[in-house]
């Protein structure tokens, strides 16, 4: 009897493990590599939640520093959780800076959002309930879309361009909420003594400045900074913006790594970006939640956030 109990327990454990693994596998999108624009990277994948009603949708925008990355970065856990919650999901590729300087990537994402809305009826998507989700560079694009005023061109001959660009909510992770050079420099100086030696950190900063000109295509630093600031969430934020759920993998008290290379990535994805944006949003009266290790947040997960803000019709 004892052996039977042990075997039964093992079978239950194995079955649970198999179910868990199955849940983490990534389903094949019902629509794959659908063209939303002319460039070869202007493609979109869509997974539809199983329901007879129109569903809300989350648009995922990948990261990669605008130099790499793809829609395949969307994690299976997040994807499955959203689908199980009755929320359809789309993921896009966009032009990288090797193809065209910013804001080409941003404009691609805008077009993808409008393309989804244009096809919403045939895809049974509720175009009034769309949220955005993305990390790092993708987070920048998400916030730019969410905080920009309406960019629809109602007079355009192109039906895609006539669709709205406003969204119900946005959930960026590890996002750079400002590309203001002074903010970045102050961030480096603040953490210099915590990790990498001063010269190594400054070298990293110098490389970021050079990359900055290539990234935005500015002929002068003045022009480059102007373009960068015009795309920054903190610059764009206003009182009519949608709810925001930001997440970072470090707390404000986290110690900087001593390795200079790790220091660069640590700085680029620092929670101070989220703190700065939340302060601005609090002043504006915009709902915001900031999750990091040890933080108390209204929502346990990004899926709970999306469920709250997208599963209410005409939110």
Task: Offer a quick outline of the entry.
With 315 residues, this protein is α/β, with parallel strands linked by helices. It has helices at 2-24, 76-84, 104-118, 120-123, 137-147, 181-191, 198-216, 221-230, 233-236, 260-268, 271-284, 302-310, and strands at residues 31-35, 43-47, 55-61, 88-92, 125-135, 169-173, 243-247, 288-291. Strands 1-2-4-3-5-6-7-8 form an eight-stranded mixed β-sheet, sandwiched between helices.
Detailed description of the structure:
This protein is an alpha/beta fold and 315 residues long. It has one domain (27-179, 228-310): Rossmann fold, CATH 3.40.50. The protein is built from 12 helices and 8 strands. It has an 8-stranded mixed beta sheet with strand order 1-2-4-3-5-6-7-8, sandwiched between helices. Helix 3 (104-118) crosses helix 5, helix 6 (181-191) packs antiparallel against helix 7 (198-216) and helix 7 (198-216) crosses helix 10 (260-268). The longest helix is centred in the N-terminal third of the chain and has 23 residues, at 2-24. The radius of gyration is 21 Å and the shape is globular. Residues 1-22 have low confidence and may be disordered.
How do the helices and strands follow one another from N- to C-terminus? HEEEHEHHEHEHHHHEHHEH
Overall, the morphology is globular
Largest sheet: 8 strands, mixed
What is the helix fraction of residues, given as a range?
A: 40-55%
Task: Report the uncertain regions.
Answer: 1-22
What is the tally of helical segments? 12
What is the residue-averaged pLDDT?
A: 89
**Percent range for β-strand residues:** 5-15%
> What Rg is obtained from the alpha carbons, in whole angstroms?
21 Å
CATH architecture: 3-Layer(aba) Sandwich
> What is the CATH first-level class name?
Alpha Beta
Structural class estimated from helices and strands: alpha/beta
